[in-house]
Amino acid sequence: MYDKTIAELGAGLRAGDFSSLELTQGYLDRIRRLDAALNSFISVVEDSALETARAADERMKAGRAGPLTGIPIAHKDIFCTQGIKTSCGSRMLDNFVSPYDAAVVSRFREAGAVVLGKTNMDEFAMGSSNETSYFGPVRNPWDTERVPGGSSGGSAAAVAARLAVAATGTDTGGSIRQPASLCGITGLKPTYGRVSRYGMIAFASSLDQGGPMTRSAEDAAAMLQVMAGFDPRDSTSSEQPVPDYGAQLDADLAGLRIGLVQEYFDAGLDPAVAQSVRDAVEEYRRLGAEVVEVSLPNSALAVPTYYVVAPAECSSNLSRFDGVRYGYRCAQPRDLEDLYKRSRAEGFGAEVKRRIMIGTYALSAGYYDAYYLKAQKIRHLISSDFRRAFETVDVLMGPVSPTTAFRVGEKTDDPVTMYLSDIYTIAVNLAGLPAISVPVAPAQNMPVGLHIVGNYFAEARLLNLAHRLQQVTDWHKQAPAGFV
Ligand code: GLN
Would you please indicate which residues are annotated as catalytic (active-site) residues? Predict the structure, then answer.
């Protein structure tokens, strides 16, 4: 049951083989039994889940069910949910219950999906290991001594451990793809503007994008179908029509041109990870694709550029958490100044403070031109690299992460090493492109993700490529021992 796809579960529900109430109850039982070892959920909402499941069963009987009706999913705790705490992994919002739903959340609600709870994450989505969460680290179900990746590590661990059929995530520099890679699931970061950011707590507004985290490409297509589309409440939302993602999953790959990014197979890449990625690329050759080498010459500039742009935007976005309107407030402030200072000092964790300080510095008078403006110029060069590459190839391939999951605590004392976890994913956010992580052969018995990057709005093509690989391999079907 817990290995079935969204389509299979939907068919079972509609045929009356089982009810959404039974399915939901089953998942809630699994969470209760298995999540203590993972810490993948911040909130589990049994009552409202069961209530939605009952309503879904009614809707099923009335013949008004859609593909997601009655399917138990989880939301990353960055998406505002009316009536359920939205903490963003922070003490700052540990007491915050949003008065409204994020666009993504209301879309799933309208589709009749059952929300089991909210998943753990790095504080304000800043991190690559889920260790910056105020609610404690998440463990990787494949080896609980190791991290699940971040910042959507709770979503990745929950889906990999079959504690939810699918989950939402967000990706500012790799936070859907890197945890998907480290946990052996499928994670899609859509084109910037494809999924509404309304009600998704902002980290770096020009980079943030929500997307699906699932066990298969087919499930990712079903999830994206619900999530994607224009939203007038998000000024960067795209009006581009949303295609039928499921209809293109089986498209032929003959003649498709794949560019293997030469800069990504560098000295920092674990040779076993490189081998798994190359083997997967060979599968595509067998499926009729042509493979050529391409160069993205400004690749090495992506991480330093991101660590100016993202902190700059976060320092501005996080200034709203001031202890006055909502969120954490320090006890007995002496005056307004003291209220601001102590609420922020006590409410934010170390990584968030580090980013706010870097960002504030980069935006200061006299430094703006040297750092922020310079970073924006380099960002343009990085986008141009991709534009040139897509003149000769249809998609780009490489690894998602330089290594498999590292040990809990291994990189926490060295932020710069941690930042390098996203060395292959960050450029994609700077350019606003879509990309997917697809499970390929494990290395050192831990999952590995293949990174496929597409041109703007090529989500259907990415899902098609992932699906075709998943028809000839079964890496995406493997389940971590102890969670089957
Ligand atoms: N790991 C990167 C960071 O720490 C990316 C995070 C993200 O995509 N939200 O900023």
Answer: 76, 151, 175
Q: What are phi and psi of 297, to 5 degrees?
A: -60, -25
pLDDT band at 417 (very low <50, low <70, confident <90, very high): confident
Say what the pLDDT of residue 484 is: 83
With H, G, I as helix, E, B as strand and everything else as coil, classify residue 479. Answer: coil
Distance between Cα 170 and ligand 1 center (Å): 9
Q: Which two tokens stand for residue 282?
A: 């060979």
Give the model confidence (pLDDT) of 318-330 as tens digits.
999 999 999 999 9
Task: Provide the pLDDT for residue 267.
Answer: 85
At 73-87, the pLDDT tens digits run: 999 999 999 999 999
DSSP secondary structure, 424-458, as one string: TTHHHHHHT--EEEEEEEEETTEEEEEEEEESTT-
CA distances from 126 to 38, 67, 71, 129, 155 (A): 20, 33, 29, 9, 15
Q: What band does 433 get if pLDDT is binned at 50, 70 and 90?
A: very high
> In the chain, where are the structural domains located?
6-255
CA contacts within 13 A on the Cβ side of 355: 27
This prediction's pTM: 0.98
Question: How much is the pLDDT for 394?
Answer: 98
* Ligand 1: residue whose CA is nearest its atom 5: 173
Give the distance (Å) from ligand 1 centre to CA of residue 462: 22
Nearest CA to ligand 1 atom 4: 127
How far is ligand 1, taken at its centre, from the CA of residue 426, in Å?
8
Cα separation, 418 vs 405, in Å, equals 12
CA 213 to CA 186: how far, in whole Å?
Answer: 6
Please determine, for residue 266, whether its predicted confidence score (pLDDT) is greater than 90. Answer: no
Name the class of domain 6-255. alpha beta
Helical H segments across 125-247, by residue range: 153-160, 177-183, 217-227
Beta bridge partners, 449, equal 439
Is the pLDDT assigned to residue 50 strictly greater than 90? yes
The pick from 77, 88, 120, 122 for probing ligand 1's pocket by mutation, whose C-beta has the most ligand atoms within 8 angstroms, reads 122
Q: For residue 47, how far is its CA from the centre of ligand 1 (angstroms)?
A: 33
Pocket of ligand 1 (CB under 6 A): 125-128, 151, 171-175, 203, 310, 422
